[in-house]
Fold:
Amino acid sequence: MVCSMCDPGEANRSTSLGRPERRAERLTNAWVKHYLKRAEICKEGSSNLVLDPHSMTTSAGATPLLAMQGIGKSFPGVRALSGVSFDVRAGEVHALVGENGAGKSTLMKILAGAYIADEGEIRLDGSPVRFNAPEDALAAGIVTIYQELNLIPALSVGENVFLGDEPRLGNSQVIDWAAVHRRSAELLARVGVELDTRVRVDSLGVGRQQLVEVAKALHRTPRLIVMDEPTASLGLAEIEELFRVIRGLRARGVSIVYISHRLDEIFAVCDRVTVMRDGTVVDTRTVAESNVETLVRMMVGRTLERALRAPKAATERAELLRVSGLTRRGAFEDISFSVRRGEIYGLGGVVGAGRTEVARAVFGADRIDAGEIAIEGRTVRITSPREAVRNGIAMLSEDRKAEGLVLGLTVRENIALTVLDRLARAFGFIPRAAERGLADSFIASLRIRTPSAEQLAVNLSGGNQQKVVLAKWLAVKPKLLIFDEPTRGVDVGAKAEIYTLIRELVANGMAVIVISSELPELLSLSDRIGVLKRGRMVAELDAATTDEATILAYAAAGQTA
Amino acid sequence: MSAQTAPRRTAAILNRLGSLLGLVVLCAALAAFNEQFRSFTNYLLLLQQAAPIAIIAVGQTFVILTGGIDLSVGSLAALTTVCMALMLSGGAAHEHPLSPWIALPAGVLLATFVGFVQGFMITKLKMPPFIITLGSFNALAGLALVLSNGSAISVDGKGWDWIYGGDIGPVIPIAITLVIYAVAAFVLGYTRLGRYTYAIGGNEAAVRLSGVPVDRYKISVYAINGFLTGCASLMILAQNLGGSSSNGQSAELNSIAAVVIGGTSLAGGVGSVWGTLIGAIVLVGVVPNALVMLSVSPQWNQVVTGGTVVLAVLIDVLRKRARR
Structure:
């Protein structure tokens, strides 16, 4: 994927567009261009596979490996799927896309035997099958790799690959460890990875863990692998590695259903794409005859309004946050920057460069070893999130489910969580009406789509969950709001809304720090961008005069300012 | 509320009433079988018997809702009754007997303090609740044994034994228990402490990152648990009129079982105190009472109560699976 960024022609063009009068146009389309550009390059790299006559024509007429026909599924009060037909050919990578709540997961759970369809039938090689339990699907050679990997962290790679099916010594109950490690090494070699199968899984990066999952799947001699958001937490290099593995599997005749929010990936590895919306299939077509814009239109059912960036009025506003010489050993060193009121400061860099760590330190979630933080010119000591909040700093974590929401509480309770001290009367009594009023006002102003404030947070889609977290923080009326990956796991429609909300906040004088791995997002939102590399600030760029290639050069290629 | 959610609400209410329904069916069946069981007095006695454990189970519910557990409540109850008895009787030599108005509150205070210390160790020293309270389970029981010298210290219940009924009758402990449950339900449902109790059990990291002083509230929960165990000890002392290391035996397991039967998740974050009340009534009220009424040997008691816990959880699991 790195290759697409370094294409010299494209980079030059972007730079020449960087003049002020062309800027607005460039920014509004930045992310679409980004997708298109990456897609072009990726297709080039793998065109021989995409246009492989075997996958494109020969198998088109033959019986598909898998055919799901007229699938319907209802839950109490919700029709999750109706009349869904979906087929996968042998040796095909088939993308399944749609906004959160479109029914992708339900469909795949039916395929995995985790849910049972109310209507419709599943055919494998043309003959009908019934999956009453996950074991049935596994026995039929259908393996699902979930977004949350199902590995046991404290066990070794080999133990994980053979979990539940350990080779034995002869007829005894004793595990043949030599065979476990030899055969798991073989399976890993098939996905092109060489690693010590005796190391614990939790000592590996997420990318490697993902490949261990694939090796584990291969052990089951699968005919179809379902990958649910496999790249959600991978870096660029790891994504490249995964793509290589996927292409290798396809070449060996294994079919893959590929679920992802990142549309550029679909153009990189997939042959056909099925778009779902509101529990139905909108269309299935070859990737070659699709582009990002048509996919997005099919997913959201409307053309997406892309929020125009507000013209910068006052650039010389008062400084709100100044960080100087901030150091946390092993995470980052000597970080200095400042953020003004009404400004969006972007933190760029590759995964692991220390962006989140810096933000967490400013928010008091992690201790700092050296350096100073000043709010409105006054030096403050922030040693806990509680003190950060008192000083007007709030932070939306990148991991919404683990650190942002209490999923088992209602929308109302989540929003009020930060301000119970303010709402509480004598004996800590919380007046329900005040709490309801607070929640309802945010549901209206942030357009949170929920049946009511009493809905449990767990039942909301990713974008709406993110809005609940935002509401919870807006309730404390912060001066500085830190967004760590604000649109991760959020569908396309909600993304644009979140951008608009962030812009509204700064227009009203708030200072914002945005951390994002999506460069178009970082570029179109930020006024200035600080680029981190291995825990050090390597550049501070004016977003108006820079481009993706420049940021990437600083973040990855090792230039220093 | 949209029309769509109305059936879900009915389902939720039915779900909540599930354990109550179980209790009613159980009682009806027993009443049909056994004439003695269905007398009004018997119902009162049965509730009176359940009162101390029911009160301890309230504290246990708070602790479990935060995602913790307390294995030491039985030992703490024993130690508290011994200390109360020592103060009331004026020590081993009966030299300086204290007024019940001082001795009894002092005992409750002591139990509260023990809970506070446990909470402190769990939060500030980051020790797992299971280990801390398992250690306390042994240490406190041992301490009770040492202080009581292995025998029961008898006390005069004059003027205060009405707490467990005394001359007035079982209505008093039943009323006290109900008041405690009502207050606990109010705290959990309508106050900051209650909200944080659920939220911490649901996702402690998120609550901490929301700027909530999590440690302070967790310590409060363990102190409340100690306080309620102290209150229950008072009732146990009034019941037995003797402080002994055998008081409150199995209270930890019975209270945890009552919480679980009541539908509170051992993982924390989900549950209610009213469920716990039903659990306590079934486990330490109805079941032992029924065994007596049906003239089953009391030796079977543990077998039946243990079986009841497993059965109740099994029903719950099956009910959840049916909903999938």
User: Anything to note?
Assistant: The two ends of chain A are 25 Å apart (CA to CA). Chain A has 23 helices and 20 strands. The mean pLDDT of chain A is 83.
